[in-house]
Task: inverse folding
């Protein structure tokens, strides 16, 4: 479970589709849902492998953390909005990561109202070596 969304969606709680989650079984999740009280995935080490679907309203701190963890040897895969013209893509992702574009829109289950929301998404991979 993750927290994608936009600034107008205050809860930003969506479930990552099983078709994606099943590929990351056993990977560390710094954005769990429900989030344990007092837990902040930005404040802890991510270990050897992490799959992250961060809050989409502000992905920059999560991408910066992913790059930091990658520099420590962690392989990080992130499910992100497909927005290649944004500064975070231009400044951090393109120079340091590998982008896998997902064809079509990814269906997310929105917990707030139980609806399905389809969003353009991509996987960004930081392989544990900073370029």
Result:
């Amino acid at each position: 479970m993750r927290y994608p969304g936009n600034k107008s969606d205050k809860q930003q709680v969506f479930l990552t589709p099983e078709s994606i989650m099943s590929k990351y079984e056993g990977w560390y999740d710094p954005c769990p849902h429900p989030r344990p009280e007092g837990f902040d995935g930005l404040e802890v080490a991510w270990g050897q492998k992490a799959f992250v679907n961060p809050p989409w309203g502000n992905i920059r701190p999560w991408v910066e953390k992913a790059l930091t963890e990658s520099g420590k040897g962690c392989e990080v895969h992130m499910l992100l909005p497909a927005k290649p013209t944004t500064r975070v893509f231009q400044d951090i992702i393109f120079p340091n990561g590998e982008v896998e574009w997902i064809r079509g829109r990814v269906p997310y289950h929105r917990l707030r109202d139980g609806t399905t929301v389809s969003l353009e998404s991509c996987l960004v991979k930081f392989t544990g070596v900073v370029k």
